[in-house]
Amino acid sequence: MHEPAPQHHREDPEVSRRSVLRSAGAAGAGLGVGLGGLGAASAAAAAPHDPGAPAPQAADEPAWPARQGKTMIGTPFERRGTVRVGIIGLGNRGDAMTDLFLAVPGVRVNALCDPVRAKAEKVAAKVTAAGQPAPALYTKGDDDYEQLCARGDLDFVYVATPWEWHFPMAETALRNGKHVGVECPLAMELDQLWRLVDLSERNRRHCIQMENCCYGRNEMRVLRMAHAGLFGDLLHGAGAYIHDLRGLMFSPTYYESPWRRLWHTRLKGDLYPNHGFGPVANYMDVNRGDRAVRITTFGSPALGLAAYRAQHMPPGDASWKESYIQSDMSISLVQTAKGRVIRLEHAVSNPHPYSRLNILGGTKGVFEDYPPRIYLEPEMSDDEWGDFKKYAKWDHWLWKEHANPPGGHGGMDYIMVFRLMQCMQLGLVPDFDVYDGATWTAPVPLSSASIKAQGAPQAIPDFTRGLWRQARPGMDSAKP
User: Which segments of 280-329 are extended strands (E)?
Assistant: First the structure.
């Protein structure tokens, strides 16, 4: 599998210093509300149940909010020949992803938004160079995205901004009748995740977590092998985001502002679980026959960023006013309704080669990534790892059809964009939905709550409201 480029996965658009400070205060104030009512409650194990009826709840399980609209599970996009896209956030991530939207036939970029006009103009030049009409530009301050979302000539809004903006931008897009795709994480607070679920259901528009790692070649191969039974009955898995970001977080040019570093002064726990959680959840059919029910998290001291600052930042730099909080390494254990265990790790503040772990184990064997290796019975014995390359026949049809995709991160960015646009053009059900995005993001606030509670388990909401018991297609899709 490819080794990711240093500028990994991050939507790095720009916000003004004022917006960063304003968002910091809002995030800190709202976090307690988002975590309110959580305790060490655990969810009941799966039991026979009508998939269309409300889920029965154990006495110690929190009462999830009542559904306000019809479920989005199994809801296809409206079929359309051309998908009209608006992009919010044109930093490193938004800029690069624009290239991929332009590379997919039948996609038209109609509008761009970023408070830094020079960046918007740079990306607009790419659009016209691709032979498309000049897109409308929205650059009049932090809130101009609201005008973009109100346009009548957009089908899909893509959000690639600092994390504190993900929820309000997704909310605005949904309220304006647009399907929306959001970079990780979907939101930072638990109540925000519920609000996006409710908005998606009420407005009949999809809210998609743009989780590119689910489309990695290795991840999709392991997914198909797991569903074919090669690993036997699944028992455990692991996923992570282990990536030394110290240099980027202190760089004066990589980010428009220190928004990502500032999150290490606000929130303890796993700030970025999606890249590890999403693929393993897919292997185990979470929300499609199993569900994540509880999480417990422990965090190490926070020492790495301060040590890096002392070595590299001059006296008087604004970073010297920052106090970093847990955790340089957070380790979470998630248990599912079927009793399976998923380990999640997050570490971006210390020296470490890049890894997402990407582990899956069952009664017939195990796969471990970084580097990729496999051990399956009866093909292998004597504790000797096998060659994962020999299982290329299990590659997903998307990777067989696009053997050398363009773009970064080994091509999985393009595979993700191509597939999402294909689903919209053909009127298909998306590979994952708002319930998946909410589940994969829930460890952000819940890991923080668990650390504060000395590792006490936290209940993971059932965002499907009982419909997780119903087996249904997901990432392992048939070629249309």
Answer: 292-299
Q: How far apart are CA 277 and CA 344, in angstroms?
A: 7
* Residues of the chain below pLDDT 70: 1-62
Residue type, position 36, single letter: G
Burial of 234 (0-12, 13-18, 19+ CB in 10 A): buried
Closest by CA position to 108, among listed 79, 133, 126: 133
- Phi, psi at 262, each rounded to 5°: -65, -25
What is the C-alpha to C-alpha distance for residues 447 and 270, in angstroms, rounded to an integer? Answer: 6
* Edge-to-edge strand ranges of the sheet holding 107-113: 136-138, 107-113, 83-88, 156-159, 179-182, 207-209
Helices (H), 321-442: 397-401, 412-426, 434-441
Closest listed residue to residue 162, CA positions, set 250, 69, 262: 262
- Alpha carbon 215 to its chain's center: 12
3-state SS, residue 367: strand
- What angle is formed at CA 275 by the lines to CA 101 and CA 292, rounded to 5 degrees? 125
Cβ-contact 91, 114 below 8 angstroms = yes
Three-class DSSP category at 147: helix
Under DSSP, is residue 333 helix (H, G, I), strand (E, B) or coil?
A: strand
Instruction: Tell me how long the chain is.
Output: 480
pLDDT the model gives residue 57:
52
pLDDT of residue 408: 87
